[in-house]
């Protein structure tokens, strides 16, 4: 056995699952002992889902970076912690051993201290996928600052909204980021965001692309200059700040059914235990193996399975700066071959996109190092599952289909590689500690084995969100009110006679576009900001590559501009206000929207029309004006 809490057989899974549900406190007590603590906890768990209040390992003191770095220095100092592959295949890759990463994190933590960052301060990180991003994240954690990483695809307005919501007073960014054949001007986006955020005291800018940037005296400093300052002061050591188990570790913004993203808050201890436990058990990670998670650290997947999971396990995590299709669609396979990757964890959307290039990009690539494959972010269709299994796994690699969310901190429902069987397009069984239930529309728990309903979780688990930043009431109403005494996931699911779950998708107004979560209300708000737009309604529709596409119905006032131009302008407005990831795939101009007499938009009808349905639109008799439906059908482009 590699880790004391690693499950290796089906029997062990059954026992662990049973114990975790019957005696959760004893179960997690024995697992938490495998970490390094400054002070042991007094109580494993205290909770209610009414407030909600969730406390794990109360009274425990620790620092997650001592678990991710310091404790590996004794026996694993020269083990690679991070491997980094550039966007440019010609640029030399980088290797950071545990010793080197510990040194760099300590050094940058000292930079943060020198710049006045204190425990509890919120630090926004907006960087490309360079090792310094992981270093910045860990340096914050080292001194107890709360990091909030923002994905590099979000616009200045989105960043400003998040900076204001978190009242973040420090920003860490890059001059630019390489992505495929583009160099994205990150600092410029930050500059635009900061116009609305005068409370930001300091911006630390890492050199990556060395494109021209403005550097404002008194506010902006270069990463490299700041490093030099701490170097000349001699001691690179930075003792980790002692954190309470329940202190916040980070905030990560995610979309919900309202127009405003919420800041999901994760704790220091519970999150650490969960990220580590799920990493070791879902992927069946063995020390020495190379784990390649293709996500961006701007999403929860990158937090948990590039940074905290692998590093807390003393593992080797591979970080990739580029995109799957640059310089060609063989990029992932080149990387697997070059670094002898053992575990590949990616999104169905990436698999579907690579499938469309055929098998040519695989030629001459040695993928024999692969042992485990994983998917995350959206349901995987059977065709993609088989392509992944046959052509990448060569029929020898288990595929773990991992269902979880930003709010859950780590994987919740998934098969465990080599331990519990995988089934194409099913997430399968809950991990130990997870008690999923299906509820019907009246909120009643469905107790029959075979069932279909809304997916809720009945008991707390260590990695669950603690609150939404600055607004606990929002956390309560979002997740704990619809079904009292349950955590509501927002997903629908079915369960088969063997207890396997299939996630069928969101049942709320949240879209999943290329594995990215986007609220329809958010997109509507952005569209409605455009001059001349009177009203809009946004729904999802099935998309071959992205999983879901964005379909917008827009009522536009008569104007002098041609509609084809207005369409481009609307897209520009959405890109400005949210980011390119939220751009609708289809914009249909309409004269009215199907509404009930009370004024509610009947999205069900709009969804059906977007899906291409023309006949069975369901009951339209409650509509205020049923003729709008015919109008919309007539105007639909086919
Ligand atoms: C939503 C969460 C989990 C990290 C990445 C996305 C969907 C996630 C699966 C899966 C079917 C999935 C759900 C969930 N989802 N994984 N294996 N099968 N659906 O995190 O942005 O918080 O989105 O992604 O709808 O609620 P997120």
Radius of gyration: 24 Å
As laid out across the biggest beta sheet, the strand order is 5-4-17-16-18-19-20
Straight-line distance between termini: 58 Å
How would a textbook summarize the main sheet? 7 strands, mixed
Q: Identify low-pLDDT runs.
A: none
Number of helices: 19
At the first level of CATH, the class of the domain at 510-637 is Alpha Beta
CATH-wise, what's the superfamily of the domain at 510-637? Answer: ANL, C-terminal domain
Query: What's the total count of β strands?
Result: 30
Share of residues in helices: 25-40%
What global shape is seen? globular
* Name given to the CATH architecture of the domain at 510-637: 2-Layer Sandwich
Helix and strand content put the structural class at alpha/beta
Query: Average pLDDT value?
Result: 96
- CATH-derived topology of the domain at 510-637: GMP Synthetase, Chain A, domain 3
Bound molecule types: 5'-O-[(S)-butoxy(hydroxy)phosphoryl]adenosine
